[in-house]
């Protein structure tokens, strides 16, 4: 068992554009049923959108269990790490 995550980034978005673009994409994913609208602690200590009933429209489940983590939306420069030891 392990953890996996994906990062989707708009490299051309400006700091001013990022919140509007994030809201637009999140609204679309909720409308498609990929995410639930309400935010919960599904991404650790931060609030995020849990997977919706049609999450398979965005991700493929290769595991024997459905994904339990959701989507965290960040609108400023952020660094991510898998936490794996070097």
Question: In terms of structural class, how would the helical and strand content be classed?
Answer: alpha+beta
Shape: globular
Helix content: 10-25%
Whole-number total of structural domains: 1
> Cα distance, first to last residue?
19 Å
Tally of individual helices: 1
Query: What proportion strand?
Result: 5-15%
Describe the largest sheet: 2 strands, antiparallel
Total strand segments: 2
The main sheet orders its strands as 1-2
The helix-strand sequence is: HEE
Uncertain runs are none
Overall average pLDDT? 82
Determine Rg (CA atoms, Å). Answer: 14 Å
Keywords, separated by commas or semicolons:
single chain, 8% strand, alpha+beta, 16% helix
Word description of this protein:
The chain has one domain. It is globular and about 35 Å long. The chain has one helix spanning 18-31, and strands at residues 40-43, 46-48. The protein is built from one helix and two strands, in the order αββ. The model has no long low-confidence stretch (mean pLDDT 82). The protein starts with 17 loop residues before the first helix and ends in a 38-residue tail after the last strand. Helix content is 16%, strand content 8%. It has a two-stranded antiparallel ribbon with strand order 1-2. With 86 residues, it is of the alpha+beta class.
């Amino acid at each position: 068992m392990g953890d996996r995550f994906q990062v989707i980034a708009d490299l051309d978005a400006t700091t001013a554009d990022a919140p509007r673009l994030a809201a637009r994409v999140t609204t679309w994913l909720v409308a498609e049923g990929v995410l639930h609208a309400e935010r919960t602690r599904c991404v650790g200590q931060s609030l995020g959108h849990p997977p919706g009933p049609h999450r398979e429209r965005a991700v493929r489940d290769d595991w024997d269990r459905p994904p339990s983590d959701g989507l965290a939306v960040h609108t400023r420069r952020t660094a991510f790490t898998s936490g794996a030891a070097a």
